[in-house]
Write a structure and sequence with these properties.
The chain is of the alpha/beta class. It contains 21 helices and twelve strands. The strands form three sheets. A six-stranded mixed β-sheet has the order 6-9-10-3-11-12, sandwiched between helices. The chain has a four-stranded antiparallel β-sheet with strand order 2-1-4-5, covered by helices on one side. A two-stranded antiparallel sheet has the order 7-8. About 0% of the residues have low confidence.
Length: about 625
């Protein structure tokens, strides 16, 4: 989680320019918000001015000429009624302009965040699998949730309100200076103390927010991992240990928030104290100046009201600073993700050209390592002819699944080449390349939705007839007919409401419904029961008909009828031939076969022995 601890500068012009791009489509709404903001700031100044006029003209006339309010009635009752109506109109205007400004910016913030989340999700779905190997899911979830929410705070209540606070402060200072320079300087005398308190608050709360962001990312990552693996936790009675670990991470988050609450707890009362200290000095000095006749009582009353308005924006600016700093850190992480390049890409024209050529698959002296030179494949070469069914066997870690990952361009080879129809797959667009393949994995993955949705998987060209035909071919229709809603039967997340065999048959139907040119079955029968395996094996014979097929299997019984069997051992292709040929060679495949079937023979003999003893 080191990346979470990177804390950006309070303001970074480069990042801010990129952020503002997301607001450009909504310029008209931003202009409306700024107009409301300007009107709001002006109206904030009007209230104390009306109070000054009411005091100096009607409540405590000083006998001095009062240029302000000369257009009002000379009658005190009428004049005060006019001022009250104006004050009420100012309050209504403040309400309307503040509502308009906040509504527009919140709306713009949500629109901008909608666009940003969409861009992030689109980009992540295009990233290479190697990226997801390096980055925990919880951290990526944090990018789309917590970090984006921080930016929403910046757009909705940060940028424009900072401008509004600065504008309000400027107008208040100008209005005060025009009434009395002395009282204005007295008001500003406590400003250094406010700045000092603000600096201490900012330092304290910045450290707390940094810890909060780190803790949030750790909580997300921990929850994702342990909720996904809850069955294993319960199986090994690890709930207590898991809760203790989560309690520690959760406590770090709580302690960080407590420190932030403490900072807010002393900061706001401190600023309030300094504000009232300034008002007390204004009241004392202003009263003395009124008694001297240097200023009017209305000026003092107006200054008291301006003083209350003067310190509130300062408090807001301190909080907005933290929003701005958090947004810079979040945007830096978000843009780092968006700037992560998609290494596996290619030319769509090349992929299109391959359609007209012979669909021969060639691995030409392929070397591959996931990291550095820890080779998973070493100088592997073989050819799969069109329409041929080739099985790949070998011990765990021999490189079987890696071969199909290279063929589908989830990774690119370091040396050698993988070709389809004579064209290097590096020259093909991954989307067009993968469109030609139907893949069934060892661990079937289903999404929340209906059975039909999981077979169609969003491909509009797959019709209901295609779905039904695929289900019939893979022996799925008996199961579908038993469902209350048939193909429309809802499936819970990850297909938890179904057995592994049922999920696997749906995966078979999904692969077949898309009518692929090539078929890849990666340990597709390893996690199903014997009865389902027979049904799958029967379906397999129909699926591979007329298709170039690659079958990865541990159970040798499922691949004995393959046209050719490739035996991988320690990252190299060691044997190739039919089932019969490989057995006659008495090599690695023969040993694998003996291990599997010797175990079966031993179990049969043991069962017969137990039965004889029981008899």
């Amino acid at each position: 989680m080191v990346e979470e601890e990177v804390l950006g500068k309070a303001y970074d012009g480069r990042l801010m320019r990129r952020l503002l791009r997301y607001m450009q489509p909504y310029r008209s709404r931003i202009v409306i918000s700024l107009v409301c903001l300007l009107a709001y700031s002006l109206l904030q100044v009007c209230g104390p001015l009306l109070t000054r006029i009411a005091v100096d003209r009607y409540l405590a006339p000083s006998g001095q000429p009062t240029p302000l309010g000369s257009w009002l009635s000379a009658d005190p009752f009428t004049g005060l009624a006019q001022i009250s109506a104006l004050y009420l109109a100012v309050l209504a205007g403040i309400f309307a302009t503040e509502f308009g400004q906040m509504y527009m910016m919140q709306y713009v913030g949500q629109l901008a965040m909608f666009d940003l989340r969409k861009e992030l999700m689109t980009h992540m779905q295009r990233l290479d699998l190697a990226f997801f190997d390096r980055n925990p899911v919880g951290r990526l979830v944090t990018r789309l949730t917590t970090d984006v929410d921080v930016l929403n705070d910046l757009f909705a209540s940060g940028l424009v309100t900072i401008l509004g606070d600065l504008l309000t402060l400027s107008l208040i200072v100008i209005a005060m200076a025009r009434m009395s320079i002395g009282l204005t300087l007295l008001m500003l005398a406590v400003l250094p103390l406010v700045v000092l308190a603000t600096a201490l608050f900012r330092r304290s709360v910045t450290a707390s927010y940094r810890r909060i962001r780190v803790a949030i990312a750790r909580i997300n990552a921990y929850l994702q991992e342990h909720i996904t693996g809850v069955a294993v936790l319960q199986l090994f009675n690890r709930e207590t240990k898991s809760i203790a670990e989560f309690d520690q991470i959760n406590r770090q988050h709580m302690d960080a928030f407590k420190d932030a609450i403490t900072a807010y707890g002393w900061f706001y009362p401190s600023v309030e104290f300094l504000a009232y200290l300034a008002l007390a000095m204004i009241l004392s000095y202003g009263g003395f100046r009124v008694k001297q006749g240097a200023i009017s009582l209305g000026v003092v009353v107006a200054f008291l009201q301006y003083g209350l308005r003067f310190f509130r924006p300062i408090q807001d600016l301190s909080e907005k600073y933290n929003i701005l700093q958090g947004a810079m850190a979040s945007s830096e992480r978000i843009f780092k993700l968006l700037d992560t390049g998609v290494e596996i890409c290619g030319s769509p024209q090349q992929a299109a050209k391959s359609d007209g050529l012979s669909q021969e698959i060639v691995f030409d002296h392929v070397w591959f390592a996931y990291k550095d030179e820890d080779w998973v494949l070493r100088d592997v070469s073989f050819t799969i002819r069109p329409g041929e069914t080739v099985a790949i066997v070998g011990h765990t870690g021999a490189g079987k699944t890696t071969l199909t990952s290279l063929l589908l361009r989830f990774y690119d080879v370091q040396r050698g080449a993988v070709r389809i129809g004579g064209i290097d797959v590096k020259q093909m667009d991954p989307l067009e390349l993968r469109r030609q393949f139907g893949v069934v994995l060892q661990d079937p993955y289903l999404f929340a939705g209906s059975v039909a949705d999981n077979i169609r998987l969003g491909t509009d060209s797959v019709t209901d007839a295609d779905i039904q035909n695929a289900a019939e071919q893979v022996n799925l229709m008996d199961f579908i007919r038993a469902l209350p809603e048939g193909f429309d039967q809802p499936i819970r997340e990850r297909g938890n409401s179904l057995s592994t065999g049922q999920k696997q048959l749906i995966s078979f139907a999904r692969a077949l419904a898309h009518q692929p040119r090539f078929l890849i079955l990666d340990e597709a029968t390893s996690s199903v029961d014997t009865e389902t395996e027979f049904r799958v094996r029967e379906a397999l014979s129909r699926m591979v008909e007329g298709r170039t097929s690659i079958v990865i299997a541990h159970r040798l019984s499922t691949i004995q009828r393959a046209d050719r069997i490739l035996v991988m051992h320690k990252a190299q292709l060691r044997e190739s031939g039919t089932h019969r040929e490989l057995l006659l060679n008495r090599g690695i495949y023969w040993k694998l076969y003996q291990l599997q079937y010797k175990d079966q023979e031993d179990r049969v003999a043991e069962a017969a022995h137990d039965e004889a003893l029981a008899g």
